[in-house]
Amino acid sequence: MKRIAVLDIAASKTGALSVLRDFAAHISQSGQDNEWIFITGTDYALKEDEAAPHLKVRVRSDVKSSRLNRLKFDHLTGCKYLESLRPDLIFSLQNTLPKGIGKGIKTALYVHQPLGYQNCKDFSLFKKEEREMALYQKLIAREIDSSVKRADLVIVQTAWMKEALCRKTGKDGKQVSVISPDVAKLKNYRDFNIPFRKDLFIYPAGPILYKNHGLILEALIELSKRGLDDIKVIFTLKEDELPHLSKLLQGEYKGLFQKAIEWRGNIPRQELIKLYQEATLLFPSYIETFGYPPAEARQLGMPILASDMPFTREVLKGYGNAHYFNPFKPEELSDLMESVRYGKLRPIDIDALGAETYTNSYSLIEKELLSLI
Fold first, then answer.
1. Phi, psi for 89 (deg, rounded to 5)
2. Which domains does the chain have, with CATH numbers?
């Protein structure tokens, strides 16, 4: 029996927490032949279960309580703590590995932070709305690069990330595995009783700067100038969640946006699947590791208007109803939205899709980890 320490003190919300919980759920069902110790930063992230005695949870809320404590853990105390657990392998789900881990312990790293590996946007520390991204791109990225160089195995979600990571760090590609994340199978949810609306578009994304909601606003202005003022766009957030766009939203075109944008907030899963079939998916984000909405919507045959970036090209490879635009040129998005509105771009036959599905990623990760020890 081997002992594996899974480090994810950083995860406390949204996608990172979901990955941690999903991986732990997989291990609770399939990892009985080994002992797994999950180190988290909050007492609500994971709970031990008597039905899975091989999965233990250790909470280090002290590390998460301040940035200084996190720095101490990453650079001074973390290696000693992890070594005290006497693991055969340390697997970090949080992009970085503590420094100083003994050479007798194998290490694996899951890298899902793309800011340091993309080259389409240089964020500024002097702009308030860009400061957090700039910190990741210019400072935290160095910690990630250092961890990549030290790890025995690196796991990423996409081939573009592997190529960019190896190019930047000099990492041997043989030590980097591409394991695409799980994507729900939606083809069987196709309901032909749901009418496709040529005037309806949806963008399911959070309020992050690089999600690029502003491009859609600019495209709506251009469409209005062309006489297309009956288009509706659904955002899965609230208007006050985009403070960096407040001047545009409250400016000259306020009336247009009030009519054209529906601020839905968080949408339940079943409703989102319905909207995928009723509307055209917009995906103007210019920085992603993977990109879930395109991977989901492609299974239903809907038109997808996506930024022309390596991650969208990879996720939508082989899909015949993907249409690309420069994420910094709103007129290109306007042209595609106009084509949808006039019926030039429509849903396609799902029986001819040949859409990729992404499954069993956690089984593949477990297999890769155990191969090290």
1. -150, 140
2. 3-182+359-372 (3.40.50.2000), 187-352 (3.40.50.2000)
Q: Both tokens of residue 145?
A: 């690069």
The whole model's pTM is what?
0.93
Q: In this structure, is the dihedral angle defined by the CA atoms of residues 360, 301, 338 and 257, taken in order, positive or negative?
A: negative
Model confidence band, residue 357 (pLDDT cutoffs 50, 70, 90): low
198 contacts: CB under 8 Å, gap ≥ 6: 340, 341, 342, 343, 346
* C-alpha count within 13 angstroms, C-beta hemisphere, residue 84: 7
C-alpha 229/C-alpha 204 separation (Å) is 22
pLDDT in tens, 236-246: 999 999 999 99
**358 has a pLDDT exceeding 90:** no
Q: Which residue blocks in the chain are alpha helix, DSSP H?
A: 14-30, 61-64, 67-72, 78-84, 131-135, 141-150, 159-169, 213-225, 246-249, 254-260, 269-278, 292-297, 310-315, 330-341, 361-372
Bridge partner list, 36: 4, 55
Q: Cite the beta strand spans of 49-133 per DSSP E.
A: 55-59, 89-92, 106-110
